[in-house]
Amino acid sequence: MEVSLEKEYNSQKVEEKWLNLWKDEMYYFDWNSKKPHYIIDTPPPYPTGSFHIGNTLNWCYIDFIARHKRMKGFEVMFPQGWDCHGLPTEVKVEEKYGISKNDVPREKFRELCVAFTEENIEKMRETMRRMGFSVDWSKEYITMYPEYYSKTQLSFVRMYNKGLIYKSYHPVIHCPRCQTTIALAEIEYKSGKTTLNYIKFDDDVVIATTRPELIPACVAIAVHPSDSRYKHLVGRKVRIPTTEYEAEVIEDEEVDPEFGTGIVMICTFGDRQDVKWWKKHDLELRVILDNNGLLNEKAGKYKGLTIKEAREKILEDLKAEGRLLKQETIDHNVGVCWRCKTPIEIIVEEQWFVKVERNKILDAARKIKWVPHHMLSRLESWVEGMEWDWVVSRQRIFATPIPAWYCKKCGKIKVAKEEWLPVDPTKDKPLEPCECGSTEFVGEDDVLDTWMDSSITSLIISGWPNLKEYPTSLRPQGHDIIRTWAFYTILRSIALVNQIPWHEIVINGMVLGEDGRKMSKSLGNIVQPDEVIEKYGADALRQWAASGVVGSDVIFAWKEVIAASRFQQKFWSILRFTMLHIKDYEFNDEDIKHLRDADRWILSKLNKLIKEVDEHMENYRFGDALKAIRSFTWYEYADNYLEIVKNRLYAGDENEKKAAKYVLYKTMDVLCRLIAPITPFLAEECWSRFKEGSVHLQSYPKPDEGLIDEEAEKKGEVIKEIVAAIRRFKHDKGMALNAPLKNVLLHLPYEVDVRDISGAINAKVEILDVLPDVKLRVKKLKPKFGIIGPMFKDKTKEIVNLVNNLSEDDKMEFVEKGEIEVNLDGQKYTIKSEWFDVEMEKVVEGKAIESVEIGDVTLFIEV
């Protein structure tokens, strides 16, 4: 047991020490363990190279849960994966090497992406280790490696064979900048201003549109059936400006008569509403936009123009023809690609789709426990509003290859067999001929959406395709990816194994800047974890993370980190005090028989704390758990109990000391284990100074119900309040807190141990059975010379002396009656008490006292 401790807690030194001493094996998951298993479907972050503050918040939550569950007796799997594939890496690699992906062979470009990603993973892994996360690194997975993406391909093959994946010619969301298809879930909506253009199609038809560049794609004109203004137009053919086409006027209930003129053009395609109308009314398909973002030959003379160029040119032509009647600025939400923020377009292409079986997904989602529960409604709203299946093919390189080929002879699709995987159809050939007998194939060069990789993480960590245990216990994730990661994982789990992926999903919020706004470079409010760690250490940052509320956005506040650092210093100071007094103490449960009221009080509070904190941790109320620990440790224990028992520790007899040392040992043991999931470095350092082994291999504290004692708490609170009241009294009197008092008398309706009160206030303490007779007497009569002087002139001093020399009874009569008659040199004078400042004092049995009342307790203090 180490006794000599530095005065200041050095978080950097301590944390670096344990990072070097801890072994990864401490956290390895054992499938054969007889303990109940707790498997976490950890988010695999995108390897940008920066483990940002939002990641930190989420992983802190996960680590709090993992550490708490381990200490509660669970065999915990806390794996770590990396969701590697995707466009951002391709863009970064192109920038780094000054190339386009088409400038080098496909395989070479992928190699560059892999190398770039591996560097980023190493940087992020380092930050995660520095934060003290108890990850099982033996269960690490990396989606860009064949051992992982072969299983993504396997999932594709199995779903294809079940009829859940198909290829079809269909309208899809397309990003002109990324030049790839994206899913509905990858659209973000950006608010702003745009121009509403009023365009005359003919004398009776004026249409207001924000997309004049799509006029060549207009295949119908629609009005609301109940709009009497336009009843006469229904069925009429109207020539489309700038084209030779005509479009029929039709009726539809979804036309908004209040928007613009109440007449709309239906184009293929301006938005998803156009797609609905196109399907509903079986309209012509006239696609004028290619996947390179340029208008094609169906746009006539506007062929080859970009969307922006076409808009400007068409408006110019309409204005020249006198068809542009007016323009106005309106508020507008535009769908943009969530990666590059470019406005998306809808084009028609042949793509691969996953069937979305909405009812099955909703049924499964409702079997999962959502924390907080209202987050389920986000998924429900998303699924219920879905109109299309999930498009999973992408026109990129750095992603999982789609395991399929096309027969050159008959055109049939050939999907790989399971035993062929992994395959890259751009360089590998099928191991058997087509049904038509041909052996000539063209490999699919589209790749899979990266969500096809990450949506099977729950299956992968459970050993799929040879599942060892399923569903997993927990999915922790952000609310921003409910409609993607949560949705896709449920879909895939139901499709592949017909089970929910996890029993529970815990949702965390986003981290906002100190100004309450979303963190961004332009606002200058970004804080990086490394910056915080460098100043205050990882444990302080972890405490900040714990202060948030699951499901809600959290504001990063430096003051919270500073407060956390101060608490760590306080905890360390308590340890130093503890070690000073228990250096020669051999813990013995028999010492419980020596406990006094103050000891029983704090032990009762301690065991209630164990119950409270454990309940908070079980329900993911980390902020409440930390608040309870801090409040007890700092205020109840350090500021009150330790101050109350100091005298006993320094000057008590052997049994008195044993009782206090028993409490010190027990409390430090419990507090180290309670705080361990939140501040692993601090807890480990403190534990190592007075116990063997790692605190993280100990069990979580369990309450001793026999020590929870309401009567003891009542007495302890009285002791605490009495000591606090006398300390306030000393402070108000300008006395030192350790200054002695002559005597303190207590009157209270029950017995209480006065040993610790006496020691804490440095005074003899007596218990009064009967409330004493408290009298008032005049302590001092201070003359008001401004009044007395002018009246008595040279006799003033003698008059004052006469009054001050009155007996105690005469002084009381003087004060009560307000005047007294005195005789000076044979002459009588009437003296008024108002000519004096009167100071009274209370007296018990002739002794001057101060009295203080605390509820039903009365204190009499003899100074």
Task: Explain briefly what this protein structure is.
The chain is an alpha+beta fold. Among the domains are: 1-30 and 521-708, Isoleucyl-tRNA Synthetase, Domain 1; 180-347, Isoleucyl-tRNA Synthetase, domain 2 (Alpha-Beta Complex); 724-772 and 848-862, no CATH class; 774-844, Signal recognition particle alu RNA binding heterodimer, srp9/1 (2-Layer Sandwich), CATH 3.30.720.200. The protein has a six-stranded mixed beta sheet. A four-stranded antiparallel beta sheet has the order 6-5-14-16.
Report what the structure shows.
Helices cover 39% and strands 21% of the residues. The protein is an alpha+beta fold and 863 residues long. Among the domains are: 218 residues, Orthogonal Bundle (Isoleucyl-tRNA Synthetase, Domain 1), CATH 1.10.730.10; 168 residues, Isoleucyl-tRNA Synthetase, domain 2, CATH 3.90.740.10; 64 residues, no CATH class; 71 residues, Signal recognition particle alu RNA binding heterodimer, srp9/1 (2-Layer Sandwich). The strands form eleven sheets. A six-stranded mixed sheet has the order 27-26-33-32-31-28. The longest helix has 30 residues. It is elongated, with a radius of gyration of 40 Å. The chain starts with 10 loop residues before the first helix and ends with a strand. The mean pLDDT is 93.
